[in-house]
Automatic annotation (TrEMBL):
Provenance organism: Paludibacterium paludis
Cofactors: [4Fe-4S] cluster; siroheme
Protein name per its UniProtKB record: Sulfite reductase
GO annotations of cellular component type: sulfite reductase complex (NADPH)
Recorded name of the encoding gene: cysI
GO biological process: sulfate assimilation
Keywords: 4Fe-4S, Iron, Iron-sulfur, Metal-binding, Oxidoreductase
Amino acid sequence: MYRYNDIDQRMVDERVAQFRDQTERFLAGELSDEEFRPLRLMNGLYIQRHAPMLRVAIPYGHLRSGQLRALAAVARRWDRGYGHFTTRQNIQFNWPALETIPDILAELARVEMHAIQTSGNCVRNTTTDAFAGVAADELADPRPWCEIIRQWSTLHPEFAYLPRKFKIAVSGSLEDRAATRVHDIGLQMVRGNAGETGFRVLVGGGLGRTPVIGEVIREFLPARHLLTYLDAVLRVYNRYGRRDNKYKARIKILVKAMTVEGFAAKVDEEWRHLIDGPSTLRDEDIAHFAQFFEDPDYAARPGRTGDFALRLAEDRAFARWVERNTRGHKVAGYRSVVLSLKSTGSPPGDIRAEQMEAAADWADRFGFGELRVSHEQNLILPDVREADLYELWQLAREAGVATPNIGLLTDIICCPGGDFCSLANAKSIPVAEAIQRAFDDMDYLHDLGDIELNMSGCMNACGHHHIGNIGILGVDKNGEEWYQITLGGQQGEAARLGKVIGPSFARARVPEVIGRILQVYVDARAQGERFVETVERVGIAPFKESVYGAHH
């Protein structure tokens, strides 16, 4: 894992001191709201419904155990004892007092964390596969490249005031687990004809008010040209992107206006001035960053031990958890464990301070002191020996993070919604809880199989509802909260947007409507067919008929 050098640490420490002075001047009345606003946004601080909201960066979702303990300390000392993991692999605190923010940032700087560029019209946190470096299907480890992009983009003077926020995702595996097709730039690691590492480059993806699936503008970019090419893309966007209308300022609108071929031509024209320039990556640069992500000392171990196999055979609850909450590892004898933050009654993505501390202890005890945050808002222990899984499972159950629902209906991706966010049109958390309670039967959930349910409280789509197999969008109708349903969306290599099934529903009806949709699936599915595959095969008509009636 990357560790700060003296320059990194000094930069973050100086930023804390700078913001402390800005905050003190604001509180003393020396800065107006208008003057303070861009300063606080540069440090990840929003003013929400009830209190300031601080968004802390977790670069590409990686955490050391000590960093997670520091986040727990922040939650306990300065917030209400919990934090919220987001779909950008960051964490948000919803209740800190404004005057305490500099102290929080100072505490985070002590463990090499900050909130720089978690808001504002700049390059946001680069995201990647939560199983990077340990996935069995990985072509190349994306983490060194994410770190290169992080250092390139952090406080980049040319790209500090883009037309709108800008998001990059990197995938290094056969399966796209980083949602690269719905990012402003998606980078998929590929191999060239000679086996060399490169990137397939996609642009113009994004959700929000105008959801778009990104398109490929370069099938193979040699890895050494990554930064010069990103410079070219950002320069074209910075020059031609609209600044007169925030809803039309994203790169996806520009790509659509230029056509993808026209945009790619502009990028190539700009790249000709940059290619092989000072930003070209040398082999020693790449090796420097790769060294931070070398494999830990995996002990040579056999595959499944006798005890592990015996536990699987004898304990159905444990076997179910292993099936849903663990993933295969590139090293035999190890698995990656997903700690579910989606237990019934808990807001999706929320984690209490004591759960953070427990997970940090498990990372040290059962792994190598590392954890990952997934864009599905769960927490991951990447390296756990199979022989330790039964003990870990028992501890995780006691801590309330072992619900065996990963990838199932109640593993809901959800924004904070109207309970906290001042942009939201409707609440998300009570709807998620109502769905969790209505479908709390694990046998039924496991029979249904893989279903992604995503929910957003407004068109900004922080809950990625457009690419949920079932998507729920909160809308405002004359001051009342209603919920629009989409079906058939999905993330990954075959990413596509869901289709709206019809008029929206009152909050109280949402669980019943979901139940009707699920019943259509159960009645229509073929052997082994997933929910989204059934929707694709039969279309949305039978679902509409079930929900609205035959004559709708």
